[in-house]
Amino acid sequence: MLEHFYDIPDVTLRPGRRLRVACGILVVLMLWGGYRVISLDREFQNHVGEALLWSALFLVAAQQFVIAWFDKPFVVSSSQQDKLDRLVVTVNVPVWNEDPAILDRVLYSLFSQTRLPDYVQVVDDGSTAADYSDVRSYWQQRHPSAVRFSWIRFTANRGKRLAQAATFRRFPGDIFVTLDSDTTLDRKAIAEGLKPFAIRRVMSVAGVEVAINAHANLLTRISSLRQLSWQYTQCSALSVAGSVLVNRGTFALYRAEVLRDNLDSYVSETFLGNPVSFSDDSLLTLFALKRGRAVQQATCFQLPMYPDNVGHALRQWIRWMRGSTIRNFWRLRYLPLGSYGWWMSVFSWWQFWVSCGAYVFVFGVRPIEGHFSIIPIVVILLCSYLVAMRNLLISRSDHPAESQLNTYLLAPLCLLWSMLVLRPIRIYGMLTCGKAGWVTRAKVEIAIDSGVESDSAVLRSETWHASATETR
Fold it and tell me: 0.90 cut: is pTM over it?
């Protein structure tokens, strides 16, 4: 039984918290920096180069934290807002074996935006494990009159890229939006996501993922912790430079010409002679970077569903790591040598392999040699809390402060998960990047009740429909 109306949490970025979190980060940086100075002096006296390597790792990571704090949400003047209001926004929602209730919630959130899109098209990519007739019938009749809504179905699965191209080839628009079928939008997501386009050089905008089922279980908690940390550190630093490397495909916005001019290359990408069906979001971001700036809007929130079982999460991670490997080759080939994005692509590989070696050295070689020390472990633990600290910037109406703090305290466990599970699988993904299969979604893999209270309607049908048609 579908609700058609859902209680979607409010997500905010609180400036007051930014100062407190920044102070905490500075304290940890000072403590860690002081330790590195002392150890560097000691190790140089003993003619051991490991301290230099650790310090280099620290500096590469620290510069991202420092730069990230200069990432501010884009704001616009009244005249700029008038221009943004005149932009035609077209949204594509590709669907393949999604839980119908999740898709229903996605459409509810899309039609409840403070800034409605002009065109919305759902493309059912030959789903075989779900029936969307109820969802389709309801929203075809009840979508806001200000939005032109359509729904098409492929007779067989063609892949996400062709499902997107079906919309972007046929529909007008100044801004094209990619929206996954499991991603609920914050009410102001489109309005906030459009603001950076007031700057003509901005070609694409990434929204910030905040898992709607973040507290479903331990796996979704640490996944949410890791993902938010990455977005508000590395991605924020890249955004300051206008060089965001991945506009999360769950929800992203592009100038229409970026997609129109590259659609043929987009749907026909190959690697080692094999068609590439994944890493669609990072390829679109690369097209945007070739034209101008790709940024992240820190107040543009999206609420996707995260995998709530290990098997699904690991298969998704394999796909991501295969895609990131392919995309890094393309970035090194096509991005300008002097760009921040090019150098961070190089440093990401260097940092990954060197940090793997550092962990093996600290937890393997040193103990075998009889030189085990607790100090590196303490530093690594402090680092885990340092990385996770920026999660405290986010406030959710459905998560009390103590629950958020409990998730933050899981930072060392998140680090262990990354070290012992995700890193080895990343290496496997890198070595098998020539395999182009999608890996997930041959069946419905996650349901709407995965840790999310979705059984309370927030508005009556007649009231919602009347207000939604007047939103713009």
Answer: no
